[in-house]
Amino acid sequence: MAAGAAAGCAWDPTVSLRLGHPALVLLERCRGAGPFRAILAHLLRLGLAFETFPMSRLLHFATAVSSPRLTREADLLFRHFTPRPNLYIYNLMLSASAAAAAGDSTTSSPRRAVALYMSMLASSVHPDERTFLALLRSVERLSAGRQVHAHVVTSGFHSRAYLRNSLIKMYLDAGDVETAELMFRSTPVPDTVSFNIMLSGYVNEGCTAKALRFFCDAALRGIGVDHYTAVALLTCCGRLKDTLLGRSVHGVVIRRVDRGDWGLILMNALLDMYAKCGEMDAAMRVFGEADEKDGISWNTMVAGFVNAGKLDLACKYFFEAPSRDLVSWNALLAGFARYRDFSAVIKLFDDMLASRVNPDKVTAVTLISAAATNGSLNHGRSIHGWVVKGFGLQDAFLASALVDMYCKCGNVKGGHSVFEKALYRDVTLWTAMISGLAFNGHGTEALDLYWKMQAEDVTPNGVTLLAVLSACSHAGLLDEGCRIFDAMKQRYNIEPGIEHFGCMVDLFARSGRLTDALALARRMPMRPSRSIWGSILNASLACQNTEVAEIASEELLHLDPAEEGGYVLLSNLYAAGGHWNHSDKVRQNMERKGVRKSVGASNFES
User: Fold this and answer.
1) Where are the PPR repeats (predicted)?
2) In the chain, what are the helix, strand and coil shares in percent, each to the nearest 5?
């Protein structure tokens, strides 16, 4: 090393610049920021810091060894004390920028990386594979990633396997699955690493079915399975809630992956898959056989039992866990809230605060939803005060939950007050207020708020439009409802769902336009639900329209032959019109099919 250094123009043998210099030896043994700064001052006094090799060791310590990283010091040294940076120094600084970009949401780090790379090219320092790997870790936009890819090709590094895999990952992370697929298919000999990158990319992009097909194709090509493959496949099975497929993957793991290579991540993926599939007995067996468990393992069990409705076992694992974090507290709180045990929610929340666990916005939404479900306005107001104290008025999502809570408790004025005080109103908050007004019978006010939302250039979504159509339906605003329904596809490019069609059918039926309601139900692109035919039947009964009532009843009986409501309503309709023979036939048909009339069940819910 000393001989190589002496041969370079940056070395001056008269001042004994060599690797064994005492200051450099101390730097190699340095373990903290304080000693580093002392050594830096010493090197500056000796004039050694201006030489390339000592500076490279200083920057190496500041950017790669020190914990925490001395990013500011490294940047100052590079800009003011490194007149002739070489490839090694440029790569150190690029890697530091990449690390900063990974932990920073601002654009300063990616811009810094680009500036370093441009400076490097301007200084006629040629990049290598490490340069491009650092640049790829820094990019945030797909356009920048494509430019890096172009430089990789022009620099002749496109055949390097590790760099190629990094490019595939970059495209997948940016959502450009098509380009990633092209790169993978052009790989001369795909290995397990590139296969796992593609598989994980499909999973992360939500392409579950494509991920499974890709795995089958790769298995036929003889590409091996490791624990990374297994984790991606188990994630697919959990999303699909496919227990049989999950058990098959579990079997593949047992056969092809050595038990010593399983690791905690794979074990937790198995737990998560079985929990999402509702197979908590299998999850318990995996949990019991695990050599190592962490907080994620315990939280997965708690959440799994909560989702399965087994709150007793959820509590058992919750209290047996070596430690309880915010995730576990929130999971159990959500369980009690889901099953409407409001007193347990409040008690658990008090225990959470007593344990010095700081609640977050998920906790707040759970508490607000629990108060809304329970209809407890006093508790809701207390929770509202705590939310404002802890999170302020700037969070639109929390404001939406509060608006929903007040409206479900019948206090529309309180909900509107939250809406007006919110510092930022997104489509979710507007939708919550419109829904709350509609829910409480203020259809005209809900429609007025919708027009105000339009005036403020907030684009509605499908839920917003459903709330407005519901308001129009209950307020009898037929023309406005038709106009909004037509605008869904034409103006907002939103395909109406069965709920939107249901509101329109109900609106036509309530307005006495039974023929239009029937026509819309028949031309829907999906099969009408029981509630849609029920609204037509109820309206036809109110209008004494026997013909439409017969059609709606027949459709209801076709959907659910065992439901007595349709029979009873049709029989009563015939009887009210004096058609006793028809009424008796309906009753006889009901008895012949073994359908029994429930006590007091003479109305059909629309």
Assistant:
1) 191-225, 325-359, 426-460
2) 75, 0, 25
Residue (of 487, 553, 563, 476) closest to 511 by Cα position? 476
Task: Write down the pLDDT at residue 318.
Answer: 96
Q: Buried (b) or exposed (e) across 40-63, using 16+ Cβ within 10 A?
A: beebeeeebbebbbbbbbbbbbbb
Query: What is 15-49 written as a DSSP string?
Result: GT-STT-HHHHHHHH--SHHHHHHHHHHHHHHTGG
Token representation of residue 309: 């409705």
- C-alpha–C-alpha distance, residues 93 and 250, integer Å: 44
pLDDT for residue 1 is more than 60: no
Residue 138 structure tokens = 């820094």
Chain segment 139-188, per-residue pLDDT in tens: 888 888 899 999 999 999 988 889 999 999 999 998 899 999 999 988 88
CA-to-CA separations, 178 to 152, 181, 182, 183, 190, in angstroms, rounded: 19, 5, 6, 9, 17
**Integer Cα distance of 169 and 165 in angstroms:** 6
Q: The pTM is what?
A: 0.73
The reported pLDDT for the residue numbered 541 is 78
Q: How many helices (H) and strands (E) does the chain have?
A: 35, 0
Written as six digits, the tokens of 63 are 């950017």
Q: Which residue has the higher pLDDT, 450 or 587?
A: 450
From residue 570, give the alpha-carbon distance in Å to each of 506, 521, 532.
19, 19, 16
* Eight-class DSSP state of 64: I
The amino acid sitting at 374 is: N
How many angstroms separate the CA atoms of 204 and 206, rounded?
Answer: 5
pLDDT at 575: 66
CA dihedral (80, 81, 84, 89) positive or negative: negative
Give the span between the Cα atoms of 546 and 146, in whole angstroms: 67
